[in-house]
Amino acid sequence: MLERTLNDDIRCQYVENLKRMPDQDKAFEGLAQLHSIEWSCQPQECRDKRCRKCGYANETLPHVLCSCKPHSRAWQLQHNAIQDCLARAIPPPIKKVAMNSTIPGTNSQLQPDIVITNEDRKKIILVDVTVSFENRTLAFHDAQAQKVEKYDPLAKTLRARSYQISATKRTRELNNTALKDNGLKL
Length: 186
Description:
This protein is α+β, with helices and mostly antiparallel strands. 48% of the residues lie in helices and 10% in strands. The protein has two domains: 1-47; 83-181, no CATH class. Helix 1 runs antiparallel to helix 2 (24-35). The longest helix has 24 residues, at 137-160. This is Reverse transcriptase. It comes from Mauremys mutica.
């Protein structure tokens, strides 16, 4: 038992020294090849599971891609690229298009990504892009439920003013159908 503890301590110290070296990637690759171990295989005591960017308790792929604040610029760029693609698909005859702005005449501070308004037909299309990390059906349903809950008060306000409200749905196929039904071609 003492021997294993000493070996683990020595291995931990060796790994920590490797981490401090300027070419640590090469050192770890060499260590993995020498000992025929996987890249991520380290003694449990040596692993620091905290996020290297923000210090969150557990650095996981969902954390890095969805909730690690230092990566938020990357999320924003991905979101904006999708939003811009949708905005370019709106044909010129559509009456009024607003992006990232509140809806005039309401008290709501919500800013849907895209709002398409046709005053003549009293119709408003609200588009709010969601980039979900997971691609399971449950994740899409959850994302849709969150958007419905978020925009329901605004939709009620607009319906009270006799507007017909359209909102995009939870899957790409349904979104394409909803957008085509409202004169948008992707």
